[in-house]
Specification:
219 residues, Phosphoglycerate mutase-like protein, 8 helices, sedoheptulose-bisphosphatase activity, PGM_Phosphatase, Rossmann fold, His_PPase_superfam, His_Pase_superF_clade-1
């Protein structure tokens, strides 16, 4: 009998002041708001723990963006258990580098560059569309290798967890299901929301999106 199909839990950090007011937050290292912390605490015992959706004994690896908003989100998720699973801090999971548009609202960017769309134009002084796609594809390749080793070789455990950011997660979902990066414009990824990525038909060659924005505060 085949083992259970592997999964990836892709989580966006909780609310920050800049995510609340719509400022592009890439390199800037700002904390969660009090409400952002509560967004995560409110789903701890629902989602995380023995026998729950995210069961620490099933976690093969957790990969966390270095920004404090992501790192704090990760620690809050496991706070009620008294210990945090081993994890990797990786710049590969940082937010899109917005370059000259860091900290700006969308309407402020449009004043500078009418018609700008991050999905086709990238960010001057930051990451291009191709650079972002290449980075995401590298992370996906690593996740799929963890999954392959578990599913085909019986090494490691079932699940991977990533805690990252809004644009990162939207691009990741698009690339996971093998579409162009720009498909990410059609996914809303809410602060604190959990996405579940896996595979159809018990086949690692059929990547699929199983769930989006689990337990998120949907606006």
């Amino acid at each position: 009998m085949s083992p259970p199909i592997p999964r990836l839990f892709l989580i966006r950090h909780g609310e920050t002041e800049w995510s609340l007011n719509g400022r592009h937050t890439g390199r800037t290292d700002i904390p969660l708001t009090a409400r952002g912390e509560e967004q995560i605490r409110s789903k701890q015992e629902i989602l995380v723990g023995p026998g729950k959706v995210i069961d620490p004994k099933n976690l093969c690896v957790a990969i966390i963006s270095p920004r404090q908003r992501a790192h704090r989100t990760f620690h809050l998720l496991f706070e009620h258990l008294g210990e945090t699973p081993a994890h990797i801090i990786s710049e590969d999971c940082r937010e899109w580098d917005y370059g000259e548009y860091e900290g700006l609202l969308s309407n402020e960017i449009q004043e500078r560059n009418p018609g700008w769309e991050i999905w086709k134009d990238g960010c001057p002084g930051g990451e291009s569309v191709q650079e972002m796609q290449n980075r995401i594809d590298t992370v996906i390749g690593k996740v799929r290798e963890y999954h392959r080793k578990y599913f085909e070789e019986g090494t490691g455990t079932r699940d991977v967890l990533i805690v990252a950011h809004g644009h990162f997660n939207r691009v990741f979902i698009a690339r996971w299901v093998e579409f162009s990066l720009c498909l990410g414009t059609h996914f809303n990824v809410e602060p604190g929301g959990v996405s579940v990525l896996s595979y159809n038909h018990n086949n690692l060659k059929e990547p699929a999106l199983n769930a989006l924005n689990l337990y998120a505060d949907i606006k």
